[in-house]
Amino acid sequence: MSDSAPGTEVSQSRLTDVGSLPVHRALPTHGRRTIGAWCFLDHFGPVEVTEDLTMMVGPHPHIGLHTVTWLLEGAVVHTDSLGHQQEIRPGQLNLMTAGHGIAHAEDGRNQRQGPMEGVQLWVAQPDATRHSRPAFAHHPHLPVIDLGRGQATVLLGEFAGVESPGQVDMPLVGLDVTGSESLELPLEPRFEYGVIVLRGHLRFQDVTVSPDELLSLGRGQDGITLDLAPDSRAILLGGEPLEEEIFMWWNFVGRDRTEMERARADWQAASERFGAVDSTLTRIDAPHPFWRPEGAM
Predict the structure, then answer these.
(1) pLDDT at 296
(2) Burial code of 207-217, b = ≥16 C-beta within 10 A, e = fewer?
(3) What is the percentage of the chain residues whose pLDDT exceeds 70?
(4) Which sequence spans correspond to the domains of the chain?
(5) Whether the bond into 46 is cis, omega within 30 of 0
(6) pLDDT tens digits for 126-177?
(7) Which of 45, 50, 188, 287 is the most buried (most CB within 10 A)?
(8) Strands 172-186, 76-80: parallel, antiparallel or unpaired by DSSP?
(9) What does the angle CA 25 – CA 245 – CA 137 come to, to the nearest 5 degrees?
């Protein structure tokens, strides 16, 4: 991580894989755990889909978070333990609320060829709602704002007086920004912000940000100017700083190891807490907790 301009930091994503696809993980990192309530950001692809290379994430559980799925290219079918089965395509939003517990699968095998690329984000739920009932919503149309030399799709929250239909329980914003040259973006001073570049590159002050680099902007600004190279694309995230201390492990967001242990045990025991997912993909077992000695039950 490097301090390249006053009040800014640039950090690299780390490369991993999810469901057979290469993934660049920008959140969490060692130097940046959250941006507002945003606590997880994976950029998967771009890849050319083959029989063996596509999104194939078998049934797995979540607690205490919202999952936000946004595709740039391709198609993926979401199936969850509430009985929803929903294909998502570019321009559409899948929003799942885990609450006390939910399970789902993400399957791209219906897409036989062509490119696949997208982002998966998590929003940590506050203590007041994180034990609530799970839910799922599909939004086929999202508002798009003209920025002059570009445009911004409002994924979540409100931006420039325009509000996304997706409902979460923390003040935040998420934008998909495309364009070229200088784009002026109004900001909420009480929010902290970050920008992840997906394609092309951008400049902010004297900082150049390349694909899969995260520019952390902090808080206290009422607007910024981003200089985008032609055909660039970026995700801007913002929100009120998360006052609650969260504990993240595997697919769970909670407050301590005790919660993680209980959720893991419930998933391994096929508890009714998470329900069943109607998917032909292989169910994913929980890993061994890093805080327990190997061999301990």
Answers:
(1) 64
(2) bebebbbbbbb
(3) 97
(4) 2-239
(5) yes
(6) 999 999 999 999 999 999 999 988 999 999 999 999 999 999 999 999 999 9
(7) 45
(8) unpaired
(9) 60
How far CA 229 is from CA of 111, 118, 234, in Å, comes to 31, 20, 11
Strand-by-strand arrangement of the 76-80 sheet? 56-62, 102-107, 76-80, 85-88
Backbone angles phi, psi at 53, to 5 degrees: -120, 95
Distances (CA, A) of 285 to 21, 249, 260, 270, 279: 19, 14, 14, 10, 15
CA atoms within 13 A on the CB side of 160: 14
* Beta-ladder partners of 159: 162
Question: Which tokens in the block code for residue 85?
Answer: 């089965």
CB 207 within 8 A of CB 221: no
Superfamily holding 2-239: Jelly Rolls (2.60.120.10)
Cα gap 15→251, rounded to integer Å: 18
47 touches 76 (CB < 8 A)? no
> What integer pLDDT is reported at residue 3 of this predicted model?
38
